Amino acid sequence: MSESNRFHLGTIGALTLSVVSSVSIVICNKALMSSLHFIFATTLTSWHLLVTFCSLHVALSLKFFEHKPIDLQTVIGFGILNGISIGLLNLSLGFNSVGFYQMTKLAIIPCTVLLETLFLSKIFSRSIKLSLGVLLLGVGIATVTDLQLNMLGSCLSFLAVVTTCVAQIMTNTIQKKHKVSSTQLLYQSCLYQAITLLISGPFMDRLLTKQNVYSFEYTPKVIGFIVLSCLISISVNFSTFLVIGKTSPVTYQVLGHLKTCLVLTFGYSLLRDPFSWRNVFGIMVALVGMLLYSYYCIQENQSKAEEASAQNQRKEAESDPLLRVENGTTKSNELPLSKGTAWEVDKDLHA
After folding, report:
1. Positive or negative, the Cα torsion across 281, 285, 290, 294?
2. Considering only CA atoms, which of 295, 249, 302 is closest in space to residue 117?
3. Are 98 and 92 in contact (CB under 8 A)?
4. Where are the transmembrane segments (predicted)?
5. pTM for the full model?
6. pLDDT along the chain (351 residues), means of 10
7. C-alpha separations of 162 from 80, 119, 152, 158, 320 in Å
8. Which whole-number Å values give the CA distances from 254 to 7, 24, 160, 266, 304, in the listed order?
C-alpha cells in the first residue's frame, strides 16, 4: 500500500473515531447531567484530562509510543491555553442563552480562517469559503433559537472563540514544526490542561451552578457514568489531536458541526427530543455544506499532489541528463561522443 493511501486511510480512521467517540460522550454526559443532575462540566473535563494523561503514561511505559521532548515553555503555554479555552466556553454557556452560545461555536470557523490567513498566510479558495458559508447557515438554522445578549456574556464568548481558535491552530503547527505525533503532543500537554481545570473547575462550577462539586451525593450510578465518561474521553482527546494534526483546525470544526447534527438526529429519533421542520431543514443544508467542503478539499488536495509530482519530475529531469534524453529535451551538442560516431567513420574512410 502506497504512503498516500495509508495517509488517506489514517485520516478517515481519525475522522470516524472522532465522530463516534464525541457522539458517545455527549450521550453519556447528557444522561449524567440531565438524569442524574451532575452538572459540574468543568470539573468533569479536568477528570477527563487527568484520566487521559494516566492512560497515556501507561501506554508510554508499555512502549506503545515514543516520548519525544518538546520545548517545556511551549508545552506549558499550550496546555494552559487549552485549559483556559475550555473554561471560557463553559462560562460562555453559563452566562449566555443557548442560542448565543451556538452562535459562539459557529464563529470559531470564520475566526480560524481569518487568523490562518493573517498570521500563517494560508489561502482559502472561494469554493471552500462558499461551502463553509453553506455549512454555517445550515447549523445556524438548526440550532440557533434565541439570541439574548449581555455585555459579560459577549466578552466571555469573544475570549472563548479567540482562545479556542489559537489553541487549535497551535495543535496543528506544533505537531508539524516539532515533528511530533498527536499522541506525543497530547501526552506532554494534557497534564497542564488538567491542572489548569482542576484548580479553576470547582470555582467555575460553583459560580455557574451555585453548588459545590465535592458536596454532591455520589451514588454508585453517578460514579459509574463518571467513569464511563472518563474512559470515552480518552478516545475523544486522542482523536481531537489526531484529526487536527492530519487535517486542519477548520476541518476539525466542520467535523464538530457534523457531530452536532448527529446528536440532534439521535436525540429526536431515540430520545424523542423536541424537533421541528426548521431543525430538519437546517441539518439538510448543513450536510450539503459538509459535502461541498469535502468535495472541494479533495479536489484541491489532488491538484496540489499533481503539481508536486510535476515539480519533482522537472527537478529530476534537470538533475539527471539521461531523463532529458528520454524526454527528448537534450540538445544535440549535449550528447556525449563515443566510438563509432559519424566523424570517426568519416575519418576512417579518408585515411
Report:
1. positive
2. 249
3. no
4. 12-32, 38-60, 72-93, 127-145, 151-173, 185-203, 223-244, 277-296
5. 0.79
6. 64 84 88 91 95 95 90 94 94 83 89 94 92 93 77 91 95 92 93 95 93 94 96 93 87 87 74 73 91 90 80 71 49 42 40 41
7. 14, 14, 16, 6, 50
8. 20, 18, 18, 19, 21
CA–CA dist 126, 250 (Å, integer): 15
CB 187 within 8 A of CB 105: no
Q: Determine contact, residues 192/180, Cβ cutoff 8 Å.
A: no
**58 neighbors 297 (Cβ within 8 angstroms):** no
Q: Which three cell numbers stand for residue 48?
A: 477527563
Cα separation of 193 and 187, whole Å? 11
**In angstroms, what is the C-alpha Rg of the chain?**
27
Work out whether the CA dihedral 201, 54, 67, 164 comes out positive or negative.
negative
Q: How many CA atoms lie within 13 A of 346 on its CB side?
A: 3
Secondary structure (DSSP) of 108-177: HHHHHHHHHHHHS-----HHHHHHHHHHHHHHHHHH-------HHHHHHHHHHHHHHHHHHHHHHHHHHH
Mean pLDDT, the chain, as a whole number?
A: 84
Length reported for the chain: 351
Q: Nearest Cα to 252, choosing from 218, 297, 220, 284?
A: 297
Distance (Å, whole) CA 232 – CA 24:
7
* CA-wise closest residue to 123 among 314, 304, 348: 304
Element (H, E) at 324: helix 321-326
Task: Please tell me what DSSP assigns to residue 351.
Answer: -
Q: How does 166-194 read in b/e, with b if 16+ C-beta sit within 10 Å?
A: bbbbbbbbbbeeeebebbbbbbbbbbbbb
Cα(97)–Cα(152) distance, rounded to whole angstroms?
Answer: 12
DSSP labels, 266-302: HHHHTT-----HHHHHHHHHHHHHHHHHHHHHHHHHH
d(CA 172, CA 180): 10
